[in-house]
Design brief:
Elements lengths: L2 H29 L5 E2 L5 E2 L3 E2 L2 E2 H25 L1 H16 L2
Antiparallel strand pairs: 1-2, 3-4
Helix pairs in contact: 1-2
Length: 98
C-alpha cells in the first residue's frame, strides 16, 4: 500500500472512531441514567440501556475505542512527521530571519 492510501485509511478510521466516541459519550452522559436511583418508596431503578447495551458495556467500548483512537493519532503524527518538521522549520526560520 502506498503512503497516500495509508493516510486515507488512517484518517477514515480515525473519523469513524471519533464519531463513535462522540455518540457513546453523549449516550453515557445524557441518555443512560447512572447508578441506582431512589424511586420514592418503590425501590430503586438500575442503570438503563440504549439499543440493548447497558451503561457499563458502553463505557468499556468507549474506553477501548479511545485507546484505538490514540494509537491512530500517533500513527497519523508518524505518517506526517516530515511535513510537521518541515513546516516548523519554515515557520520558525521566517520569524528569526525577516
Amino acid at each position: 500500500m502506498n503512503k497516500p492510501t495509508i493516510n486515507y485509511v488512517v484518517d477514515a478510521v480515525q473519523s469513524l472512531l471519533l464519531l463513535f466516541l462522540l455518540f457513546s459519550g453523549i449516550i453515557q452522559g445524557w441518555i443512560i441514567q447512572r447508578g441506582l436511583k431512589y424511586k420514592g418508596g418503590r425501590g430503586t431503578v438500575e442503570d438503563g440501556t440504549f439499543l440493548g447495551i447497558d451503561r457499563h458495556t458502553l463505557v468499556t467500548y468507549h474506553k477501548w475505542v479511545a485507546v484505538a483512537f490514540v494509537v491512530l493519532v500517533i500513527a497519523h503524527i508518524v505518517l506526517h512527521w516530515g511535513w510537521i518538521t518541515g513546516m516548523s522549520r519554515r515557520i520558525f526560520a521566517e520569524k528569526h530571519h525577516p
